[in-house]
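Input record (one chain):
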Amino acid sequence: MSVFLHEYRPYSGRTTPLWTRPLVLARYGLAEVWSSKITVGLFVLSLLPCVVELVMIYLADNPVARLLILRGNPVLTINETFFLNVLETQCWFALVIASWIAPRLVSFDLGDSALPILLSHPISRFGYLLGKFIALAVSLSYVTWIPCLVLFVYQSYASPQPWMLTHLPLGLGIFAGAVLWIALLSLTGLAVSSWVKWRVIATGAIFAVVFVPAGVGGIANAILRTKWGLLLNVPVVMTEIWQRLLGAPAFMNPRLELPNFAMAAVLALASLMCVAVLNARIRAREVVRG
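The corresponding structure, as predicted from the sequence alone:
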């Protein structure tokens, strides 16, 4: 039958709800991320400290094991400082994993010129970025707040004294601190990956974005004899935020402690910069030079 004899009609069937469309990209993003053996290896490696910490909790709470192995010495104390160390360890593993998987989510789309095709489908730029953000955030959750809260629950179960209710703010602080770090890492990873198409360079650039400003802030502190350069030091800022959320003892000189509003302003500014980069780079267009 000739083409002009066909009667074309618009599709009138059931459509996918708008709020579920980013989940399709998130599902395929998770499949792409976890198809790599390196990702699985990094994930297993990041959980090894949790196994050691699980054994430490058992030894601290079991009197028989403490008597046989530790000779009754109370060298292990499960408190806010212990969980602060656990959270720090897992969050820095999350940085390594994010630097590896974030370029897989965006760089391939940009490098293969697939972004115009994806955005030609019934999904917005916000939906595209939300799907990628969900895939990255879920992957990082596996190594941050989920294992930390598993240790928290096990400590509540193993403790001979009522523990969970008296330490409930500690559990909430663990969750809030991990979610804050995941959001910052996800935005940074997506922004850097959208700007750098080459995956290896994007991985190194994510580390550079985190650690290079720390060196600049250290130089500013030494030259100007001030503490405000620490605001550029992401490891110091995040560690201080985690310490305050968990209620752990302060680790810094009181003269060098940063106010909460200043750290919140820096994190908000960094997030806005990442959003601006994503807004500039994620476009449904392709530039062809002839």
